[in-house]
Amino acid sequence: MKLKFAIVSFFFLWSLSSKASDWQQLADFGAEGRHRGTAISIGTKGYMGLGHYNGTGNNIIKSDWWEYDPATNAWTQKSDHPAGNYGVIAFSVGSVGYVGSGQISSNFYKYDPSTNSWTLMGATPASFNNSTSMVVQGRPFCFVAGSNQLFEYEYLTDSWIAKNAPPFSVGFWTCSFAIGEKGYIKTSNSLWEYKPFLDEWIQRAQYPGIATSGSVAFEQYGMGYVVCGYGGSLSNVTSEVWEFNPMANQWNLLEEFPGTSRRFSAGFSIGNKCFMGTGTNGTNFGDFWQFDALANFEGQNMENLSIKAFPNPATDYVNFEFEGSESFSSSAMQLTITSVTGQKVYSQPVQSTKIKVITASYQKGTYIYHLSNKNKLIKTGKFIVN
After folding, report:
1. 108-135 b/e with 16+ CB inside 10 Å = b?
2. Cα-flanking dihedrals φ and ψ of residue 325, to 5°?
3. Where are the domains of the chain?
4. Mean pLDDT score, 102-129
5. How many C-beta atoms surround the C-beta of residue 268 within 10 A?
6. For residue 212, how many C-alpha atoms fall within 13 Å in the half-sphere facing its CB?
7. How far apart are CA 332 and CA 311, in angstroms?
8. Record: fold of 21-291
9. 268-307: pLDDT as tens digits
10. CB atoms within 10 A of CB 45
11. Of 39, 135, 339, 356, which is most buried with the most CB atoms under 10 A?
């Protein structure tokens, strides 16, 4: 996530949501529909496979492994994973991926796409079945579901290091994502932030959606996204898409996933494009989708929209100046200011390119502004009141 600094020491994050559809359906997954499979990206390609389906009463366990090329929107079958499995952990570091330690087998493997080969790695320190992992600035972290254990994988030495125990029990079938130097795990309706360099945990804003488990999560443009899943019971599947803004510490409900509601899908990211497919609601799916929160943004050219907040730090007032906002319906644009704890202190429609907000009565500290258009969050930033 790039930070852009103005001369007034103000920074902002790029936006996230759109009026038109954020989703595009792509070529179906290359094999049978399934759920509790896995997916990663390595370089410019995505990889998906494993999983199972059991709708007929028989538990059909999959070991196939497929490569997806976004440039051609095509799937190519690669070498099978050595152990049919589901509910595995999976992540990539550099030019290779790691997949294993799931419901069926505790074996942990490295996949090298340059040779299309799998290598058995050393034993894992715990069973990572039906849990989640995240990579924070090249450092892989894996959670142990049903416990409060977190391990970092030292891929150069094939060794594991126990980290500061999370102050909560990690749920099964939960999800996680990373933004910049921090990792985030959603377990049930709680969201926790992990700072690897401090080995420190912070609780963040409560997840307001339906899904308690079985969701897909990824990062895009510096925001976190949680898609689909189920709430409470397996039959209560949802199509909700929630976006987490780490700077404002708030969730925003976006347009629903346009495919069938589901749980236990798999997803990966390539750059700022996110991909998701498979899953189940009792029926196993093989469809495949791309998510891009800026693809159809109303007004299109985001670089034409800029905001200045000054003076910063402020004392008696802070000025906001908007440029490039002519692409938006000014009657639908709203400027909201909250404290860092989420308390709203100001909210007004944006009816001109300049707004002066009186801050003389504000308590000293940091404040977050939110610019929205037709109830969709566009940009957010912060300023200080002295």
Report:
1. bbbbebeeeebeebeebbbebbbbbbbb
2. -85, 0
3. 21-291, 298-385
4. 97
5. 25
6. 9
7. 26
8. Neuraminidase (2.120.10)
9. 999 889 999 999 999 999 999 999 886 654 444 444 678 8
10. 17
11. 39
Q: How confident is the model at residue 356 (pLDDT cuts 50, 70, 90)?
A: very high
Is the Cβ–Cβ distance between 37 and 51 less than 8 Å? yes
Nearest to 246 by CA among 220, 227, 209: 220
Q: How many CB atoms lie within 10 A of CB 96?
A: 16
Q: Which residues contact 55 (CB under 8 A, 6 or more apart)?
A: 282, 283, 284
Alpha-carbon distance of 228 to 176, in angstroms, equals: 14
3.40.50.970, 2.60.40.10, 3.30.420.40, 3.90.550.10: CATH of 298-385: 2.60.40.10
CA dihedral (226, 232, 234, 235) positive or negative:
negative
Q: What is the pTM of this model?
A: 0.78
Backbone conformation region of residue 269, classed left if phi is above 0, alpha if psi is from -120 to 50, else beta: beta
Task: Please answer whether residues 196 and 181 qualify as being in contact, where contact means their C-beta atoms are separated by less than 8 angstroms.
Answer: yes
User: How far apart are alpha carbons 131 and 382 in whole angstroms?
Assistant: 35
Tokens found for residue 277: 């497919």
Entry field: residues in the chain: 386
Residues 9-42: tens digit of each pLDDT: 222 333 333 345 789 999 999 999 999 999 999 9
| Sequence-distant (≥ 6) Cβ neighbours of residue 343 within 8 angstroms | none
Rg of the chain, C-alpha, whole Å: 22
What order do you get walking across the sheet with 216-220 strand by strand? 216-220, 223-227, 241-245, 250-253
Four-CA torsion 269, 275, 276, 278, nearest 10 degrees: -110
Residue 318 pLDDT greater than 70, yes or no: yes
Angle made by CA atoms 87, 276, 14, in degrees to the nearest 5: 120
Nearest to 259 by CA among 289, 235, 220: 289
DSSP designation for 35 = B
Alpha-carbon distance 250 to 372, whole Å?
A: 13
Q: Name the 3-class secondary structure at 303.
A: helix
Find all residues with CB under 8 Å of 326, minimum gap 6, and list them: none
CA 230 – CA 263 distance, rounded (Å) = 6
- Find out whether 172 and 146 touch, Cβ atoms under 8 Å: yes
Does residue 292 sit in helix, strand or coil? Answer: coil
* Structure token digits, residue 214: 């079985």
